[in-house]
Amino acid sequence: MIDRSHLGQLLARERDSYRRLHPRSLQASQADTKLLGGVPMTWMAKWHGGFPLVLAGARGASVTDVDGHEYADFCLGDTGAMAGHSPPATTAAIKHRVEELGGLTTMLPSEDGAAVGSMLADRFGVAAWSFTLTATDANRWAIRIARHVTQRGKILVFNHCYHGSVDETIATLEGGRVRAAAGSVGPPVDPALTTRVVEFNDLEALERELAALDVAAVLAEPALTNIGIVLPEAGFHDELRRVTRRAGSLLIIDETHTLSAGPGGCTQAWGLEPDIVTVGKAIGGGIPAGAYGLSEDLARRLLASPDADLIDVGGVGGTLAGNALSTAAMRATLEHVLTPAAFEQMIALCNRYETTARRILIETGLPWSITRLGARAEFRFCPQAPRNGAESAAAADDDLDEYLHLYLANRDVLLTPFHNMALVCPATTDDDVDRLLGAFSEAAQELQTAS
Description:
By secondary structure, this protein is α/β, with parallel strands linked by helices. The chain folds into 2 domains: 4-82 and 340-448, Aspartate Aminotransferase, domain 1 (Alpha-Beta Complex); 90-337, 3-Layer(aba) Sandwich (Aspartate Aminotransferase, domain 2), CATH 3.40.640.10. It is built from 14 helices and 16 strands. It has a 7-stranded mixed sheet with strand order 4-12-11-10-9-5-8, with helices on both faces. A 4-stranded mixed sheet has the order 1-2-3-15. Strand 1 and strand 2 (62-65) form a beta hairpin. The protein starts with a helix and ends with a helix.
């Protein structure tokens, strides 16, 4: 539907503009640093245009680069800054812990930790919580607990899922066979030995794979989010819970990205009943933090197990996990920033974005879909919203991705670099949404002339 020659001309123009508008970021990318890939963490090289923007500062829903451009930020640290950048309540709590109380990490529990556990239990409906520094660790430790309690070895995930850098989850389906995901760096073993993979929304395949009775747990996002947003079909979660219980497999719900659905993520919004909930990124307001929560029954079974070393070298826990700084940040973020009222405002703004963006697609005739999950929404380059990971992956288009990201960045709007996701935070304003919609409308109109 798109004239690729014309799209190539638009891309060349936007690439040239990107280099011209960001000379200091370009210079930094060409410097001889001792950083692997030239960036502090290799994912930071993902940005389109040939080099990443270099951060100067960020507040609320805005990011400023070293060239002086201030962006309406809908990337928000790829969800890590869902609370906004340096939210005042979180910043005050960090300052209080650092300057007045002291003791950033001591291997001692704090009152903040107990308060955060209570808040998470109220929001997600599972009773016993423990902290990590990342959602990856939360998922890794949840898997270990599931294997210990069930005495089973395998886990089941959905095709094109993402649960951090957990070995067992970096797997995909190819021709009906489980294989290491494309680009997987040094997979330790053949993932077919550890993992079963089915398509999202495919209940028949799910039931078939669980019938072997070797799956310790199904690890699932309530909706896929890292391959575009793929929503569950009606009745999917009820059946997922029913078949996991019947097969004796635990259900782990990963709310790291789907926290966008509300204060208790999809677990609260949709009335889910997981055995374990994992969450990370956003709950610390920018300070590294993650957590996993167990149902009351599962916690009782785990604590009653005489051969589960939970307090030393059993493979669950970390020296810095649950430290005083991160628990202070989590408490302030949950109490004062990511509140029910804040989510109501965030979701309303994102709904306005989705509604207007869909109208722009209709007016310009672009055959794309947009899907929203609470405060986040995302385009896929296909007319109907995908129903599973394979369909969503098939809709990828690298040139269109780069065009949209560069077009918006050159007009001071940021989307997450990994996909076309826009996330709204408590500090996002109507003006920010209008800036995004205005730039997207112009980009779509220019593409229309290429069709």
